[in-house]
Amino acid sequence: MNDGSRSMGDKGGGRPLRRDAALNRERILRAAREIFGRRGLGVTLDDVAHEAGVGVGTVYRRFPTKEALVRALFEQDLELRQLSARKALAHPDPWQGFVDFLMEMTADLAENRGLNEVIMLGSHSSGPIETARGGMLPFLEALIHRAQESGDLRAEVTPSDIPVIQQMLSAAAQFTQGRRPEIWRRYIEILLDGLRRRPGNRALTESSLGNETVEELMGLAARPAPDQERQREQ
What we know:
Elements: H1 19-39, H2 45-52, H3 56-62, H4 66-89, H5 94-111, H6 113-119, H7 127-134, H8 137-149, H9 161-175, H10 184-195, H11 211-217, H12 226-233
């Protein structure tokens, strides 16, 4: 029955939320996105409550732990990123689709400190978050393969290059300490020029890190012991 006093319900399942409870949940999520974006994941649920203009108890009723709140935000971001990837894959120009996706993803990470910490640095890990972070790999593989097949993207580029590029660009945005937050756009243009396949491209002297190493660095997989690492590099 839909009497207008209920919403579609919580993402985590269970009974539908009352309309006022659903509105509070969305208010909390908006506030958390804003404050995590500015300050990173070091903020507390009390900070989120203050930002949202609601009581601390209201936050804890909707999100009993900070991990639950971070997971809800990350699920929203993952849905947007997957939608962006599907849109890029449908673009009639494979290169432009690849560029559009890279630009959108970089903007998210450069402008949202908390999201960058979750995705790039593994600062807040849980089973669902780790699974979701790894779930973007098929999209990256498809976008890269499509752009390479069209002859626009260098053949040496691998999916493991993309997180490294993202980290470089995010670091550029953070380096300015808020004075030039859009400076990453200058450097992505430089990087895209280097990623473009041309007859005169010189061979790259270093191989990519590989998906396994990147997953370890992002907290998606356990790091090997030092002796195992040495053996792998030999």
